[in-house]
Model the fold of this input.
Amino acid sequence: GIQVEQSPPDLILQEGANSTLRCNFSDSVNNLQWFHQNPWGQLINLFYIPSGTKQNGRLSATTVATERYSLLYISSSQTTDSGVYFCAVERRETSGSRLTFGEGTQLTVNP
Amino acid sequence: DTGVSQDPRHKITKRGQNVTFRCDPISEHNRLYWYRQTLGQGPEFLTYFQNEAQLEKSRLLSDRFSAERPKGSFSTLEIQRTEQGDSAMYLCASSPRVLIYEQYFGPGTRLTVT
Done:
């Protein structure tokens, strides 16, 4: 199956700092999503981004499908950004099928 | 649009008992997915439905697990003869009937088997 690797596994920032989270995947994809998991376990959709660049407020994401990686940028981080960030992909050969998740990046933003 | 809902949110059961979870997808989403997440890991796929048809099952879905979506709306996941290793967060997601299969997740059901 497809492999998804996220880095770094843990990240500690001071409020106001910027950060970049990376997701590498081992095969061609037709779906790539970034999620933020809050302390109660809810997965919040951040981006649906199988290719290209998107921005939403302080967050932006870029996927370079030909090189099999995606980046999530968080600018001017806030304590509420803390939590686990997951990248998840679906293989190109399927459509509307399973997502394969990475192991996540645990982000802690200190005041 | 009220989002994906799951019930119950928490379940504590004794080993050997049966449990059933329910998931209500976003209205008119024709695909529904079940995932399981253990502590410190990313969610792992269990199974998914397109309307009432179960199209794929993971090897994680042992014979003790069964999922249904009888009328293509809500879905149930049943675990028979629960074991301590079944303790996990069970997540449900749905996606719309369009080319963009973005999945939206519910709040999950946290199962503890004692």
